[in-house]
Amino acid sequence: MSTGLRTTFWLHAIVAAVFGIAYLFFPSFVTDFFGFEAMDPFVMQLFGAATLGLGFASVLAALATRLEQVAIVIEMEVAYTALALIVCLYALIFAGAPAMVWLGAALFAIFFIGFGFYYLQTRSVVSPDTGRPALR
């Protein structure tokens, strides 16, 4: 597995830990800081738990020794970051989301580009044995 991909996983794990802990343990502070109107703390805590779970998957992927072990995590990250970016942009453009949502949009865009790069890189090699995309 490349150093760049491993670094991307570690960066994602760190960012997910920071935001996940904040959402899970300080939901009211986060909603006030980001400028959201009253939101059920349970929803923020549930989002925090999911964010920490994704971060934990990135830790496991960063510790993996073979690309085959992390392929599905890369695919999940591409899908998740793309969808989250779309939601953030929609909220900013059409729903009047607070300006701090640009931070989330920027982070999702950065990770989408990072994981997308490695996704495309891993799919560019075809296995001579099966004719299907192979992982390096």
Fold and architecture overview:
This protein is mostly helical and 136 residues long. It has one domain. The protein has 5 helices and no strands. The longest helix has 24 residues, at 71-94. The termini are close together.
Question: Helices, strands, pairings?
Answer:
Layout: H1 3-25, H2 27-34, H3 41-63, H4 71-94, H5 101-123
Helix pairs in contact: 1-2, 1-3, 4-5
What does this entry show, briefly?
74% of the residues lie in helices and 0% in strands. With 136 residues, the protein is mainly alpha-helical.
Tell me, briefly, the overall form.
globular
Could you estimate the helical fraction of the residues in percent? over 70%
Count of helices?
Answer: 5
Whole-number tally of structural domains = 1
Topology, number of strands:
0
What percent strand? Answer: under 5%
**What is the alpha-carbon Rg in Å?**
17 Å
The helix-strand sequence is HHHHH
Give the key terms.
single chain, 136 residues
